[in-house]
Design brief:
Length: 273
């Protein structure tokens, strides 16, 4: 089964893209065949993986617009600097696609349907083997608009990076309301996990926010905290995930620990079901 995770937070600059790419790389390093999907019109994930969205001929937009029969999803997938880690890029059309999509019936499922077409063919059906992923990570846009709903509808998990700053928990409550609405309308199976990032050990506010998260969201909070590390600002310019750019840096160790914890949580859930 493919585990689909939407890295979401309606606030910009909270490390969604960084976490999506870094965690995707950590899963790939563990041998998971992993796809990261750029679902933000700004195309930052594509850029971080070394691709210029302005120069791409196809992207996740084509997956959303196409009928299953029209599109070869493999044509929308690009390799990254890491083995086992692929990218489905975004392009600027993603910014204006909402209108076109909402004219269609059950548009909320457009990304989910697209992911179905990535599945390998049924046994006995023949045809060339298609790509199969253990995990798909979606880098969501900084909004709670229709694209976010599409991503949350396609995912089993929302993974929420929370920046250790004031007002972070206010935004979090709004996001959890939206996840609740998605659970009721289009995706009964969605669950969520939270982790703290951009944590500054010297900053009292950072510590306070972390304590609040521990107090109010204990069951959903991953223990690993991602601290400030400038290597995370540099690695996108190199077009590489941090664990490749600076394998031994603190950020790499922390993202590896976060991936380990995430995998454990996913497996516990699978055993329960
Ligand atoms: N732990 C960290 N330490 C230092 N800088 C970080 C860290 N995580 C992310 N950043 C930087 O913060 C900025 C915002 O991160 P980004 O992943 O683009 O956020 P979002 O996708 O939520 O808008 C980027 O410049 C990124 O390099
Ligand atoms: Mg981003």
């Amino acid at each position: 089964m493919t585990i689909i995770i939407a890295v979401s937070n309606q606030k910009g600059g909270v490390a969604k893209t960084t976490s999506c790419f870094s965690l995707g790389a950590c899963l790939a390093e563990r041998g998971w065949h992993t796809l990261v999907v750029d679902f933000d019109p700004q195309g930052h994930l594509s850029l971080a993986a070394g691709y210029d969205p302005d120069e791409l001929e196809s992207s996740v937009v084509d997956l959303l617009l196409a009928d299953r029969s029209q599109v070869n999803p493999q044509a929308l997938i690009l390799p990254t600097a890491m083995a086992n880690l692929d990218l489905m890029p975004a392009d600027l059309r993603l910014a204006t696609i909402e209108q076109t999509l909402t004219e269609r019936e059950s548009y909320e499922f457009a990304l989910w349907r697209g992911f179905q077409s990535l599945a390998p063919p049924q046994r006995g059906e023949g045809g060339p083997a298609q790509s199969h992923y253990d995990a798909i990570l979606i880098d969501c846009p900084p909004s709670l608009g229709k694209l976010a709903i599409l991503a949350l509808t396609a995912a089993q998990w929302a993974l929420i990076p929370v920046q250790c700053e004031y007002f972070a928990s206010r935004g979090l409550l709004r996001l959890l309301d939206v996840i609740d609405a998605v659970r009721q309308r289009t995706n009964a199976a969605i669950d969520y996990l939270i982790f703290a990032t951009l944590f500054d050990v010297r900053n009292a506010i950072s510590r306070r926010v972390l304590e609040e998260l521990q107090e109010h969201f204990a069951g959903h909070l991953l223990q690993t905290v991602i601290r400030l590390d400038t290597r995370l600002r540099e690695s996108p310019m190199a077009g590489e995930p941090v664990i490749q750019y600076a394998p031994r840096t603190r950020a790499s160790q922390e993202y590896r620990a976060l991936a380990q914890e995430l995998v454990e949580r996913l497996q516990v859930k699978e055993q329960i079901q």
